[in-house]
Write a structure and sequence with these properties.
The complex is a heterotrimer of chains A (259), B (415) and C (368). With 415 residues, chain B is an alpha/beta fold. Chain B is built from 18 helices and eight strands. Helix content of chain B is 56%, strand content 10%. In chain C, α1 packs across α9 and α7 packs parallel to α9. The chains are: A alpha/beta (259), B alpha/beta (415), C alpha/beta (368).
Chain lengths: 259, 415, 368
């Protein structure tokens, strides 16, 4: 069986993904925590994806690596930034995508693309944790709510308490004051989710949002964020079944297209 | 800590000691090199200028980049640009301590060139000024910051304040200002005002301008013969600091020759040129950074930079105040942003540009405020555009990972 | 007695009696160095740009690290909040304003926009230059609005403006008097009404108000006395906070306060007089002459017997940020401490500012 397998590796600061792409489509993928050793994480991740897909290393045609740890990924042929990869991956899953919102653990991006999935513009926020998964983590801790329940609970109320602080650290203090003042947890959660959505909205640079918006990255699993973004943009947002593998998918697609 | 203080004291003494520069000049002469002779002229120019400033046989006048240096050379005084000293100090990797010193006095939201200059002044590393003469072009800092320096050094501060508009009456007003300021300056510095000297200085400036024009023409060649990273350092440096000085007449023709040789042999500064970029904003990070190597390694040439756009016509040596007023008012970065846009459009066509990077230097409101406007306009023309946020003199504000990701994404975008 | 509410009632009554005041042709303006008399002579009503807005969009049209006032103004303009204006006039007050002028013109496409050149150095040539700028502005207004501005109109406008100046001087002189004392914060609140009506109405209301309140000549000391100066600050929130914390604001040098006061000499050519009066005002932080500014602040501090200066700078406000150390240093030499605070353009000052002001007042109380 001379199957050609293309591999995309997305080595993030928090999680790493590996995705195997064949001529027919996505074969398998794996997600795991990166831990302190990105090189080892990429190897482990790839091993797991190969085993899930029932493929041996010898079938690998090409590997493209992306993400913060892309430099240390072994056996890659090429590196591509997460920006290009998230654009490509989102476009593959939802071909009418023209804007991608990627909210990761430590950064967030808004990317515009053309009808071929090529990047036309992008805005990144990687200086400040407000508007990223980290913000949610900090708030989950302050409110003593499980991170995985934050989104669901935020949707239980229609009106949120506005969070005005720009910075995660100050927002945390603000939330603690709100708890002390007796506001409901769900109202505060809604306010937190609205705050993140507003930060993202700010980044969209008043792009003439033609076509569809797709969301990717770990935070896309938070239904509260997706809902808040839908409200702000006034339109539906495409949600991949597994938003965390979009980057690796894009990288694998680039691997496939390379001559 | 004590060692540091002693080290700093020693360094300060060396900096103030004219023979330090004389020694470095001799040392430079011993190093033979056929390459980059123009670069060495620039270094010699700087060393001689500092030596003379610390020798203090002639009055020392501090100016900013957009105050025409012809005015100072015309007085036969020595111009020192604290902004350029900051850039040099940053290039040598020493800006950190001076920035920290300045942070005790002024806000870190302000331009790091000015902050570093303040730190240098507070630590007494700069040649004492007899007069500070600045132009409120191009930014608020050029007015207020120099005012503060004048209080520190207890020397007078004269301000040229070019109007926003470019009407005939603005030219008259500007001419009147120059006349008045020069009158005051001669009295403060106890120097005579010699028309013949100004004639000579303006002639020199025109000759230099002629070479700049020719260099700019050569740089239109494909592939790019001269890197923008150098255009943003010693080339623009000489244009700000040496117009009217005989040094300019040693530097520019030499640089022209160097570039001409490369153009004749059809040699670009990159082995393969995939794209030709325009660098927007007058400055670049001067401390060690990966930006330029990264671009070069991908075949992305910095073909031209707006900093070296020749915006003024030849001066009239018989009418020094009038023609310098005209020079000042033809500045494309003053006035409405359409002037800057027209210049950029001209450069886009002339240099066959297919992409632009705007380096938004932290604290530079006048330039960064226009980055999005210019970007929208360039994007309409289908030119890939990147705004790179960063700091030109403060290495603590440089995040290699963030810059690399943005640059790489931009390169991928260009295809 | 709530003096501000008393004034508001008088003003509201007058507004009710003069419903047509709302049908004005409004022309927006941002900087107190613009002689409003020129607009009034053209029978246009100046509308002061004091936006209340968040800055989601504006960040991407300008630069995120930008003056909050400028961003708020652009934000409101982009959302159509200023579409009722028949025109807008800017001055090249600062780098940010130059870019605001560009963005406003290019993205909001106003029917009439103009930038008046404001000199930084004040001397006879710049007064003449500014006057020429006013002539140019008049020409542009005449062409666009199809009116002729005659000297009589200008003189009448100046007279009314001088009347405002006279009334405001009286108003400021009442500060600190009465029991409870008429506070500076209330004066600023009264002034904030100036921008919602035309000058005639405001003058009338102010005159009625001043004659109606009978204030004790004696001044009642409240707490440590301070003076407040700074870049554009909307409303009285900061001053009221200082008063709430037990301080007394004896005087201020604010764009929404005393800086709107002008006294124009009617004996000379009106445009020349306007130029001279406006440029001759005590310099704000944007002007070149720091020495003159320091002298002015010192004089005012001594006049109102203030123990300290609160120096407020908008975030990213270059002129005020650069000048702060010079002012602090000069005042230190004469034994007057300065509190430097940096903040947003409007709204209640945050916890950090509150703490700083409180601590400063404690120090002043201690110093006696």
């Amino acid at each position: 069986m001379s199957r050609r397998i293309y591999v995309g590796l997305d080595i993030g600061s928090i999680s790493s993904e590996a995705l195997l792409l064949s001529e027919e489509g996505i074969l398998s993928y794996s997600i795991m925590a990166t831990g302190p050793n990105p090189k080892r994480a990429s190897r482990e991740c790839l091993k797991e994806a190969l085993s899930k897909g029932g493929i041996g290393e010898e079938s690998i045609s090409r590997v493209v690596a992306t993400g913060y740890g892309r430099i240390s990924a072994p056996f890659k042929v090429k590196e591509m930034t997460e920006i290009s990869c998230h654009a490509r991956g989102s476009h593959f899953l939802f071909p009418r995508t023209r804007t991608v919102i990627d909210i990761g653990g430590q950064d967030s991006k808004v990317i515009t693309l053309d009808d071929r999935g090529r990047v036309t513009d992008f805005v990144m926020n990687d200086k400040c944790s407000a508007g990223t998964g980290r913000f949610l983590e900090v708030m989950a801790h302050a409110l003593e709510v499980k991170l995985s329940e934050m989104g669901k609970r935020s949707l239980k109320t229609k009106k949120g308490v506005p969070i005005t602080s720009m910075c995660t650290v100050f927002a945390e203090s603000e939330v603690i004051s709100l708890i002390a003042e007796g506001h409901g947890v769900e109202e505060i959660l809604k306010g937190i989710h609205d705050s993140i959505a507003r930060r993202i909205f700010r980044m969209t640079r008043r792009l003439r949002v033609r076509g569809e918006i797709t969301i990717s990255g770990g935070v896309a699993k938070n239904e509260g964020i997706v809902e808040a973004l839908k409200n702000l943009f006034g339109m539906e947002i495409n949600l991949p079944d597994e938003p965390q593998i979009v980057g690796a998918l894009g990288a694998a697609l680039y691997a496939k297209e390379m001559i | 800590m004590a060692n540091e203080a002693i080290g700093l004291k020693f360094l300060r003494k060396m900096v103030h000691f004219p023979s330090t520069y004389q020694f470095l000049l001799h040392f430079l002469n011993l190093l033979h090199s056929k390459e980059n002779r123009a670069y060495r002229v620039w270094v010699r120019f700087l060393l001689s200028t500092f030596r003379d400033a610390y020798l203090h046989r002639k009055p020392v006048v501090w100016i900013n980049s957009f105050l025409p240096s012809e005015l100072i050379y015309g007085l036969d005084a020595i111009p020192i640009l604290p902004e350029i000293v900051s850039a040099l100090v940053s290039y040598l990797g020493w800006s950190g301590r001076f920035l920290s010193r300045a942070d005790t006095s002024i806000s870190t939201d302000l331009c790091s060139f000015y902050r570093c200059a303040l730190g240098l002044a507070l630590e007494d590393f700069l040649p004492r000024p007899d007069l500070i003469l600045s132009s409120s072009q191009l930014c608020d800092g050029a007015n207020k910051f120099f005012n503060y320096l004048s209080r520190l050094y207890q020397c007078p501060h004269l301000l040229l304040d070019p109007p926003y508009s470019d009407h005939p009456r603005s030219h008259r007003y500007m001419e009147g200002q120059i006349e008045e300021v020069m009158d005051k300056a001669t009295k403060i510095l106890s120097l005579p005002l010699r028309k013949e000297r100004f004639r000579l200085v303006l002639n020199r400036s025109n000759q230099a301008r002629h070479w700049i024009e020719k260099i700019n023409q050569l740089r239109q060649s494909i592939p790019s013969p001269f890197p923008g990273s150098e255009g943003l350092s010693y080339l623009s440096g000489m244009t700000f600091h040496s117009m009217g000085s005989p040094w300019a007449l040693r530097f520019f023709p030499l640089l022209y020759e160097e570039i001409e040789r490369r153009v004749f042999s059809k040699k670009g500064y990159l082995p393969e040129e995939e794209h030709r970029l325009l660098w927007l904003h007058h400055v670049r990070p001067y401390y060690k950074n990966e930006i330029f190597n990264l671009l070069s390694s991908r075949g992305i040439a910095l073909s031209f930079e707006e900093a070296n756009y020749l915006y003024w016509t030849p001066l009239d040596p018989s009418e020094p105040w009038k023609s310098l007023a005209d020079k000042i008012l033809s500045n494309v970065w003053a006035g409405p942003i359409e002037r800057r846009m027209r210049a950029i459009e001209e450069m886009r066509v002339t240099y066959s540009i297919d992409g632009a990077i705007h380096f938004s230097h932290w604290g530079c409101r006048q330039s960064c405020g226009g980055a999005a406007i210019i970007g929208d306009w360039l994007k309409e023309k289908g030119i890939p555009y990147l705004i790179l946020f960063g700091d030109c003199a403060d290495p603590n504000n440089y995040s290699p990972g963030q810059i690399r990701t943005r640059l790489e994404a931009f390169i991928e975008m260009m295809g | 007695m709530n003096y501000y509410l008393a004034f508001k009632k008088i003003l509201d009554d007058l507004k009710a009696k003069n419903p047509l005041y709302a049908k004005n042709q409004w022309v927006g303006w941002t900087c107190t160095y613009l002689p409003l008399e020129i607009l009034e002579a053209a029978h246009l009503t100046p509308f002061r740009i004091l936006p209340q807005a968040t800055t989601e969009k504006a960040d991407s049209y300008l630069d995120p690290n930008f003056c909050p006032f400028i961003k708020a103004a652009l934000e409101k303009a982009l959302s159509g909040g200023y579409s009722f204006l028949s025109g807008i006039i800017f001055l090249n007050t600062c780098d940010g304003m130059r870019r605001l002028f560009d963005a406003w013109r290019l993205y909001c496409k106003p029917t009439f926009s103009y930038l008046l050149d404001l000199p930084r150095v004040i001397d006879s040539s710049s007064i003449t230059f500014f006057k020429e700028g006013l002539e140019e502005l008049i020409k542009q207004l005449e062409v666009h609005f199809r009116k002729k501005i005659i000297e009589d109109d200008l003189l009448m406008a100046i007279e009314k403006s001088n009347k405002t100046g006279e009334l405001l001087t009286k108003l400021f002189s009442l500060q600190g008097r009465g029991d409870p004392p008429f506070t500076h914060g209330e004066i600023l609140d009264i002034l904030s009404e100036r921008w919602k009506v035309n000058r005639s109405l405001f003058n009338q209301a102010l005159e009625l108000f001043i004659s109606s309140i009978k204030l004790d000549q004696k001044a009642y000391p409240v707490g440590p006395k301070v003076m407040v100066t700074g870049s554009l600050l909307d409303g009285s929130d900061l001053v009221r906070m200082i008063e709430e914390l037990g301080g007394e604001v004896g005087a201020s040098d604010l764009c929404t306060g005393q800086r709107i006061l002008n006294v124009v000499n009617l004996d000379l050519d009106p445009l020349y007089s306007l130029s001279q009066a406006y440029l001759g005002k005590p310099p704000c932080g944007r002007m070149h002459d720091t020495h003159r500014r320091i002298d002015f602040l010192k004089q005012k501090l001594l006049e109102c017997k203030a123990q300290g200066l609160i120096y407020f700078s908008l975030k990213f406000c270059d002129p005020y940020l650069y000048e702060a150390p010079a002012i602090e240093g000069a005042l230190k030499e004469i034994g007057i401490p300065t509190l430097f605070i940096e903040g947003e353009y409007s709204g209640k000052p945050g916890g950090g500012i509150r703490t700083r002001v409180q601590a400063f007042l404690e120090v002043l109380r201690q110093n006696g």
